[in-house]
Amino acid sequence: ALAKELAEELDMAYFPSPNVADCYINKYGYDLRQVDHKLPESCKSYDENDFLKDPMRGNGSKAARFQLTKLSLRYKLHLEALAHILNTGQGVVMDRSPFSDLAYMTAMTETGVISKNVYNFYHQVRNNALFALWRPHLVIYLDVPVDETRRRIEARNLPNEKDSMLTTPAYLQALVDSYKKDYLKDISTHAEVLVYDWSKVADPEIVVEDIERIDFDQYTVFFFSSRRRHT
User: Fold this and answer.
1) Tens-digit pLDDT profile for residues 36-94
2) Of 22, 69, 131, 211, which sits most exposed with the smallest number of CB within 10 A?
3) Residues sharing a CB contact under 8 Å with residue 202, sequence separation 6 or more, in sequence order
4) How far apart are CA 141 and CA 198, in angstroms?
5) Contact 155, 132 (CB under 8 A)
6) CA 125, 131, 133, 135: dihedral to nearest 10 degrees?
7) How much is the pTM?
């Protein structure tokens, strides 16, 4: 919600986080999940709801493929965002990015959803892909204590979410720790970082004002051309 509002306030394009569920709707609008009952278990669909409901399906193999698909979708969306910037000159606000995706895989590893071997493979894929991408100029992190996050989950009362092992205090704490120790620590060497206590939702205008005070000129990209002298 904040990302969308910031895009409107700053006259930028908003790119929401992609969903695996959307991949199962083909170009004709047909939902491929309708044929799951005819497929072997290894070929059945596995979307966000399945991930929350049964992250250990296939001994975690489904969850591993799911998160790799998430990384791929976020990578492609990041390329689309960069193409938009270069073609239109308009800035972009994204809800998450391929750079922050690592926090989820780390939390899944620490809580036993996936194996260390899968985690290492994920790192290989990630390192081979992300080095070529421009990093964001600004990262905004909304910090909410785990107990408050659980309270909001309980208030929403969505069965797949409320009773999932992926919303337990242990998993949520692992996710928060990875965001702060791994992602924010690394990205802060490349980008501006704003962190807000979001225990109570604040006025987005405060965030807008903080953004407007940042000097982004240091991130200007210059293109150089050279001429070769022929003799």
Assistant:
1) 999 999 899 999 999 999 999 988 899 999 999 999 999 999 999 999 999 999 999 99
2) 131
3) 196
4) 9
5) no
6) 110
7) 0.88
